[in-house]
Amino acid sequence: MIDKLVAKIQKTNAPIVVGLDPMLAYVPEQIKEAAYREHGETLKGAAEAIWEFNRRIVDAVADLVPAVKPQIAMYEQFGIEGLMAFQKTVSYCKSKDLVVIGDVKRGDIGSTSAAYAAGHLGHVEVGGNVYAPFDEDFITVNPYLGTDGIKPFTDICKKEDKGLFILVKTSNPSSGEFQDRLVDGRPLYELVADMVNQWGADLTGSCGYSAVGAVVGATYPEIGKVLRKVMPKSYILVPGYGAQGGKGADLVHYFNEDGLGAIVNSSRGIIAAYKQEAYASFGAEHFEEASRQAVLDMTADIDGALKSAK
Ligand SMILES: O=c1ccn([C@@H]2O[C@H](COP(=O)(O)O)[C@@H](O)[C@H]2O)c(=O)[nH]1
User: Fold this and answer.
1) Which segments cross the bilayer (predicted)?
2) Kind and range of the H or E element at 163?
3) Of 1, 113, 184, 241, which has the fewest Cβ atoms less than 10 A away?
4) Catalytic one among 8, 105, 247, 275?
5) What's the CA gap between 174 and 152, in Å, rounded?
6) Which residues of the chain have pLDDT under 70?
7) Given CA atoms 164, 168, 174, 178 in this order, what sign does their dihedral have?
8) Is 128 helix (H, G, I), strand (E, B) or coil?
9) 129 by DSSP, 3-state: which?
10) ipTM
């Protein structure tokens, strides 16, 4: 799957992930009203509204980007109905040939990680039947439990040609409380990055990158520069662009000399673009066109930054 991701990034010339984080507050009134008319102001009504919102955004941007990243929390908040909308979103995006990165941040003791890995990346057997319940292409994983918590995920990646993005340095303001602590004189995020190299060593695709990538926030560009060098073969998923303050100019050192190696996520900045002043002229009626324009602008911002850094 890492080969498909890299090929799609090269084809679209857009190292960009559209984050599908559909808070109800971003869903235009006309979509919510239609869903509530049919299903009432219920969890099913909310789930239908976010699904329709996603579908229209995906249709508007699918030719521009290689990948999407549905954030499972935004769906889970609506219970089972929300999870059904998550599953429907994953499968719709795959039908549009988008690479799907499930932002699920799983990781537990080995036996429990194995169940997470089967449910999100692999298969489960029920009697004589075999199911792929969520079937994302990549998922995000929390490394806090160490190697036996990661191995079930890497095993499934090998078997099913899937991939991971492991949290190394997150974009949030408190990420340094643990992640920047010095251990044997080195910040913890560097030790985790060393482990990412080890975990991904025998999962290198023909593109030269490993199926085991890393999450490194856009909000810490100096650390991004260091981590790029520590993990030369890992793709870096970079959240924190846009709504959290990251800009193209901050991100040039997250990329390798080959112009590859990083893929930048923006969620609110794209899906709720119509609420921003810059895109207000589209109005709520044409929210998906505002999202399309926001993708084009983000692509130009990152491309411009990479070209002027050469
Ligand atoms: O370090 C991290 C890891 C994950 N995220 C997730 O990415 C998106 C960011 O959303 P924006 O609206 O573009 O800020 C969201 O799903 C986070 O859970 C992150 O931000 N930082």
Assistant:
1) none
2) strand 163-169
3) 184
4) 105
5) 29
6) none
7) positive
8) coil
9) strand
10) 0.99
